[in-house]
Amino acid sequence: MASPRVLAIVLAGGEGKRLMPLTGDRAKPAVPFGGIYRLVDFVLSNLVNGGYLKIVVLTQYKNHSLDRHISRTWRMSTMLGNYVTPVPAQQRRGPHWFAGSADAIFQNLNLIDDEQPEHIIVFGADHIYRMDPRQMVAQHIESGLGVTVAAVRQPRSLADQFGVITADSSGTKIAQFQEKPTDAQGLPDSPDEIYASMGNYVFKTSTLVRAVTEDAMDPTSRHDLGGNIIPKLVAQGQAGVYDFSRNEVPGPPGREIAYWRDVGTLDAFYEAHMDLISANPAFNLYNREWPIYTLQDPWPPARFVGGTEGVTGHAVESMVSDGVQVAGSVERSVLSPGVVVGRNARVEGCVLLDGVRIGQDAVVRNAILDKNVVVPDGFQLGVHDKDADLKRVTITEDGIRVVAKGTTLELP
Ligand code: ADQ
Question: How far is the CA of 159 from the centre of ligand 1 (A)?
């Protein structure tokens, strides 16, 4: 049997308010992650590794660096009719930019019309994960349902950030769906967990087109897939659920455990980095059987400089990108290209984005420093309570210091 025609739509228009200041002038899917990637690279790698090579990426909010990244990184041969195309909001019909994710699709029905797919994958762009989407598409087709929603167990305390699913007795159909409830019940076998929608869907084309078209006529709708479209299809008995924990992705030495992380908050973003560098990384970026693709500028290899006095430049339990120069001490940290750590400086538990400079004898602990932040010689961050008085420094609930792009830290 010929494989079904599938179009993939990646929703990449989210604002990511809770990731401020990292989303100050870039869309959330363009936020750097893991040294050399951007968030959007994870969903696109999953789709491309799964063989889905017709992909439109709907962008909207502060889309400049996102569009540039996608165009540069994800250029594919169009000879076989394959593409990854960023579609910025302003090209769409009507005088207004789109409202929610359902409206974004409604405004782009022409792309669906051009391609005439039988099924449409609609995936978010904000998550760190590895997933073979073919297994979800196969279940969706076999079920004959209008939509299938991918789901994963999450702590019940996070229920108000997710669509919460109750499966029927078969485990594959959705009996109830509540978008971001404040009073979610835990699972019967695990009261502290809920079954959360991953914001990844596979639709029958006719179901999606009808649903977003009807929704567009409804003045009371927020035009949101999770808030409006999915609950309606659940009520019509048209929604299935795909259990992400069953997803198998190849990789040495056998199969990888299903890893999925929503990095919607600064603390989650930080924790996901720590997952990369733990002794047995929960998420293995080194799996060549299911690579995560990106584009790197041609930096020289990282170098570690010996000092005549004090410490010799070194990094332990860390990931260090090309173009990094370290003359101090780096522990439990992820360093993007072009970071410089000065003599005798100490960097511990940090995520340093491109071009950050840490001065001599400086100490930086438990911090996320956005691009080109400069920490002057001898400065201490993450050491004292008085960091709260610093300009352009955000302190998260977990006490992580986050410094906005381009800031040169100064004492108050
Ligand atoms: P949220 O992430 O809160 O919840 P939303 O803000 O709509 O929902 O973002 C979903 C995806 O769509 C993101 O990738 C975002 O970048 C993108 N997006 C949002 N508005 C867009 C627009 N107008 N145009 C293009 N892209 C847009 C959703 C679901 C929940 C589910 C969580 C999982 O609603 O049910 O549990 O995702 O994280």
Answer: 15
